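Amino Acid Chain and Its Fold in Token Form
===========================================
Scope: a single protein chain, as residues and as a discrete description of its fold.
Amino acid sequence: labelled as such and written in the usual single-letter residue code.
Position: the record begins directly beneath this header, with no further notes in between.
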Amino acid sequence: MPEFSILLIDDEPAQITSIKAFLKRRHYRVFTAGSGVEAMKILNNEMIDLVFTDFRMPDMNGLEVVKAIKAFNPEIPVIVITAFSDTEEAVNVMKEGAFDYLPKPVDLDELEILVRKTQELNYLKSENKLLKEQLKEKYKFDNIISQSSELENILNTVSRVARSKVTVLIRGETGTGKELIAKAIHYASDRSDKPMITVNCAALSEGLLESELFGHEKGAFTGATSQHIGRFEQANGGTLFIDEVGDIPLQTQVKLLRALQFGEFERVGGSKTIKVDVRVITATNRNLEELIKKGAFREDLFYRINVITITLPPLRERKTDIPLLIRYFISRYAKENGKQVEGISKEAQDYLMKYHFPGNIRELENIIERAVVLTRENIITTHDLPRGLSVVSENNLLDPEDFSDPYTEKVAAFETAMIEKALKLKEGNQSRAAQLLGISERHLRSRMQKLNITNPRK
């Protein structure tokens, strides 16, 4: 870690010498300047972490120095050393952005405490910046694992709506990655440096949900022993992700509609109107249109949250992504568990490719994590997979009169069978196999890659 650099600004040599010697003994890197003008030259040429400046100086006083440094780099903390007893001047330097002030004569122990405080502040700022960059990296579009055209189209929509304030409804079965898409929207938006707050409506009782969303005042109900800030207030300036929005009771839907329309609400048990600036993203695995017909979901709320709809396909409809996800999860959980697991056998992968995954990506992740932990080999085999997985017969997939499987899956299975048969007949020669199929060799290679077909000759 680089040395912590401190700049001392004072036109009194004796004080500069005293403070510099004290800081040098504590292994700080110290620069000195006799005026504000000289100090600005040093700031232009050196990385400075903290500035101490005297208030009474001939060319620039402490207030002017604070203004100049904050204009140059607002992240550098400035502490003003002053002999004045006028609290109004102290307030003025703090208003201009000074970190603190230190009265004369300088107490060196107090000075050191302030130095340590700024060190802690710098560390926290660096840590927060790193965390934000890691989050942005984690949730950026490039890291959403897919090669299916369906998800590519979805990500294209996500990128176009991210910077707007429009409400987004994400629909899809459990485990399809709805929260991941919500986070991608947030971290690609202008609100990425503000909080993203999540509330899962299915996990909360009717009485608790309204309090969680909007907060409550002390004494609002039995057990409300103190004021509680709700998720809308916590997300102010940022994004609120309401998961399983179809589970919200009708009474709470009325209050949610008002919050979405006008950006205002009252806490439970309160009368004060609270205004917020929140971008709302909702998600559900339920059929909201059917709930509207049954009177269980408000139609006006549906139109308010349904400005942009993103529907995530189940994993069984994007089977080309399964090998990619398998490799990703193996790499991740092998690293987490200290295992030397390098891949998966063709038989095990084929077995998973025929499974319908009612739990979608979350279920696949669980299966691979379990297999990585249990396997005694360096690759996952069918013996490492859970017993009782109901796989789809290849014969059913290829039967044109069996409509139990999705159209796209049956087409992919039929194309795979044709290509594998052609390659086998031509002993793995791709050029001859392409001629047999009546397509170009380049097209054949593209389809083999897309369908994850390995050449039997290789």
In short: The mean pLDDT is 86.
